[in-house]
């Protein structure tokens, strides 16, 4: 049976309804897409602004905490944890990993802790919204974490079925694809790939030409631009931030490569994606 990409978002939406929670999925690398570029999670799924209590007073501190600070914390942890943001809102945070690589974060909530008081300076509407949040029960929180970790594992497995099943990682082609997926967001070159494959630099270059008809740079650019397309269509991140997240040194180089590979600048692609 052919897997429908929409089933992943549908499963998350059903989970929200059945458990009475809100779910936000933060995509660190633009990894949540099909080979054709269809994003698995819509824009509102990838932002806490859809959560009523989070939308009140939403600002750069919210983005800094949920996208960047939590990315750093999740990079050091294997399992989920309870996290309280700077506003006092508490959620479960579960790292989304594939083969040890952090793809993003799965947030579930929202609650308040017993006796917690929100900080000063937030809009007047925040205090009653915060007071209306249920208190987090530690025992129920642990059980919910276990259930959601299983859901996250299922999401990653379905993602692999959608994207990567045609190239088993036991083959050299599969190993190259897996290497690119794992290292595309960072500085990597032919020497690193050669060491990974246990081949010389020249043998690795020849292998790439024989199997892909191009060099490593083009394969890296293809992966990075695909991830960028996902982030452009699924988030409100700036072009500069997206450039760095997918592996480019700066926005100018990113825009140049994006235009060359898609036929349009990234800003235009985003506008067309959001309008459709």
Distance between the termini: 29 Å
The portion of residues forming beta strands comes to 5-15%
Are there runs of 5+ residues with pLDDT below 50, and where? none
Secondary-structure element order, N to C: HEHHEEEHHHHHHHHH
The portion of residues assigned to helices is 40-55%
Shape: globular
Q: Mind describing the biggest β-sheet?
A: 4 strands, antiparallel
* Count of DSSP H/I helices: 12
What is the CATH top level name of the largest domain?
A: Alpha Beta
Give the neighbour order of strands across the main sheet.
1-4-3-2
What is the CATH architecture term of the largest domain?
Answer: 2-Layer Sandwich
Rg over alpha carbons: 20 Å
Structural class: alpha+beta
Do you know the CATH topology of the largest domain? Beta-Lactamase
Q: Calculate the mean pLDDT score and round it.
A: 88
Question: What's a concise summary of this model?
Answer:
By secondary structure, the chain is of the alpha+beta class. It has twelve helices and four strands.
């Amino acid at each position: 049976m052919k897997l429908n990409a929409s089933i992943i978002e549908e499963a998350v939406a059903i989970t929200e309804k059945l458990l009475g929670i809100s779910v936000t999925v933060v995509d660190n690398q633009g990894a949540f897409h099909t080979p054709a570029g269809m994003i698995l999670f819509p824009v509102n799924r990838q932002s806490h602004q859809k959560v009523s209590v989070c939308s009140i007073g939403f600002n750069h501190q919210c983005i800094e905490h949920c996208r960047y600070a939590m990315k750093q914390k999740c990079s050091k942890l294997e399992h989920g944890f309870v996290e309280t943001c700077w506003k006092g809102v508490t959620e479960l945070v579960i790292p989304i990993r594939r083969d040890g690589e952090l793809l993003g974060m799965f947030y579930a909530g929202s609650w308040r802790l017993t006796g917690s008081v929100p900080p000063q300076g937030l809009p007047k509407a925040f205090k009653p919204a915060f007071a209306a949040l249920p208190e987090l029960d530690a025992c129920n929180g642990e059980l919910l974490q276990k259930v959601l970790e299983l859901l996250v594992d299922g999401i990653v497995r379905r993602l692999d079925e959608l994207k990567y099943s045609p190239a088993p990682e036991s083959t050299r082609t599969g190993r190259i694809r897996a290497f690119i997926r794992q290292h595309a967001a960072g500085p990597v070159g032919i020497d690193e790939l050669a060491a990974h494959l246990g081949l010389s630099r020249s043998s690795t270059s020849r292998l790439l030409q024989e199997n892909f008809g191009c060099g490593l740079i083009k394969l890296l650019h293809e992966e990075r631009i695909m991830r960028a397309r996902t982030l452009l269509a699924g988030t409100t991140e700036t072009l500069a931030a997206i450039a760095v997240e997918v592996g480019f040194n700066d926005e100018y180089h990113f825009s140049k490569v994006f235009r060359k590979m898609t036929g349009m600048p990234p800003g235009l692609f985003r506008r067309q994606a959001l309008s459709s």
